[in-house]
Amino acid sequence: MIKIGQIGIGHNHAAAKMQAVRKFPELFEVVGFAEEKEEWLKKRGDLPAYKGLKRLSADEIIENSDAVLVECDVWNLTEIGQKCLDAGRHIHLDKPASGTLTEYRRLLDTAKAKNLTVQLGYMYRYNPEIKKILEMIDRGDLGEIYSVTAEMSTRHSDEYRQWLNHFGGGNMYIFGCHLVDLVLLILGSPEKVISHIGSSNMNGITAPDLCWANLIYKNATARIFVSSVEANGWGRRTLSVAGSKGTVELRPIETPEKLTFARLGDGKEYHDDYAKPLETDHLPDSFRYDEMMQDFYSFVTGKAQNSFTFEHEYALQKVINEIVGGVGAWEKY
């Protein structure tokens, strides 16, 4: 069992992470949570995830924990994560990392030098259908990959879209990072990036809420699209991977997952839709973080090694930085 605490409850994934941890009392002893901002205490302090837990200072969380869930506002993630690592604590760092690339490089280098775990909170890495797609690619079922199309859209409230102004790159920074992660897992780092950080200006809100990026490779391309004003955006969230032997598509990506595979040559005519459904594991939203937190325990205790290397995590942040024209996350706007 490891002692674990949470610093910050302001991240969108914060409460769900704590709920996941508390499902496994045989793995984690929760020492408490820290939050200094009254705004978040009023909005989220009474959520079931924090019921019965001690509220401590950030320093007390670090002092009394073996590992820390860093779940503060995005613009403070790297700073707080660095403080935890400097004190010799393992961290689960929610996404995307903040600060400059130099600051993030220092965080990863500190963890490497001290042999500490840094697990990033990219939940699609634990999506069972995405895992199936990656396995199909590894087996060669799709042949040579030449195209990846990824979309992560939704319909956000005007208040939420205004909140996107906290981020350089708006929804591409805070949501598109999930898709960049998947593209890099499939194709690696691109040779060139082209992007458009745009706004729908819907209801007079000028925050970046309608963004796209093309990641260009020698023999492949990846297209990423993120919208916060999309009717049925959740239902259209997509990961499609095309190769010389066929195309696999996950749409929607989750709740409910729908996975199809079109093998080259199965269609009689070029205009036939011959994609066939593949069996999927329909899982509740609560599953998003369960396996992730179980893995975190295994990484911290040395029972398993994190397959997402520091090199991948830095390359991911570097590409995000290039897409949005310089990573930025600001408390005020």
Structure description:
The protein is of the alpha/beta class and 333 residues long. Helix content is 33%, strand content 21%. The protein has eleven helices and 13 strands. It has helices spanning 14-22, 38-44, 58-64, 77-86, 101-114, 128-139, 158-163, 170-174, 176-187, 290-301, 310-324; strands at residues 2-7, 28-34, 67-70, 90-93, 118-120, 145-151, 192-198, 210-216, 221-227, 238-243, 246-250, 259-263, 276-278. An eight-stranded mixed beta sheet has the order 7-8-9-6-10-11-12-13. It has a five-stranded parallel beta sheet with strand order 2-1-3-4-5, sandwiched between helices. α4 (77-86) packs parallel to α5, α5 packs antiparallel against α11 and α9 packs across α11 (310-324). The N and C termini lie far apart (42 Å).
Shape designation: globular
Tally of individual domains: 2
Number of helices: 11
CATH superfamily of the largest domain: Dihydrodipicolinate Reductase, domain 2
Number of strands: 13
In a few lines, what is going on in this structure?
Helix content is 33%, strand content 21%.
Topology:
Layout: E1 2-7, H1 14-22, E2 28-34, H2 38-44, H3 58-64, E3 67-70, H4 77-86, E4 90-93, H5 101-114, E5 118-120, H6 128-139, E6 145-151, H7 158-163, H8 170-174, H9 176-187, E7 192-198, E8 210-216, E9 221-227, E10 238-243, E11 246-250, E12 259-263, E13 276-278, H10 290-301, H11 310-324
Parallel strand pairs: 1-2, 1-3, 3-4, 4-5, 6-9
Antiparallel strand pairs: 6-10, 7-8, 8-9, 10-11, 11-12, 12-13
